Amino acid sequence: MAGFRSLARQVRDPRCDLALRRYSLRKCLERFAPYGHRATWDHLCSRAGFDPEDRSPDPARLVAALEELEEARAVWLAYEVEFARRRKKEKHEGLRRPGSVDDWHRMTWGGFGVAWCDDPRVHPHEPLAEVLRRLIAALEREPGTACPVCGGERLVWTYDLDHEPSSGPVCTRCGILVPRPVLTPEALEHARRGELLVSA
What pTM value is reported for the model? Predict the structure, then answer.
């Protein structure tokens, strides 16, 4: 099975058939898709300027979509390297019990669904790398009350998500499943009750 980098080479290769280049970009999303496969594809297509159903998009637009995906993947891989380094240090110091961020991280290893969007047409509009930087920054600070990606304060607890966990706080503005570790217990409770948390 081809890895992300070999698929990326096929997307860039002008000797490859255009259908293969498009297919290879779609296959990249099986290796790295921050919003999930369908929502990440919709995001990349809209940002690069071609229709998700277009079977013969402009090759330059395919490459632009790939470049956005590669930049985001580099951000996430750097985070995973730092995460692994931190956990190794903690274990060496005797801290064996992982925290809530570690639990969340295990479900998203490799970057699939780190900012899950259950509705493939509702996702952040910013570049993927910027979204991941905001999410990582939120994971590295004290929990807050709003979506770390768009700042939206309306979070609704949603069930039967096509993801693990299958329920959680979803931002009504940008559509991501907000990682529980970035939210305060009060924000999580308000999301469960469908209430807006008003900051004092």
Answer: 0.90
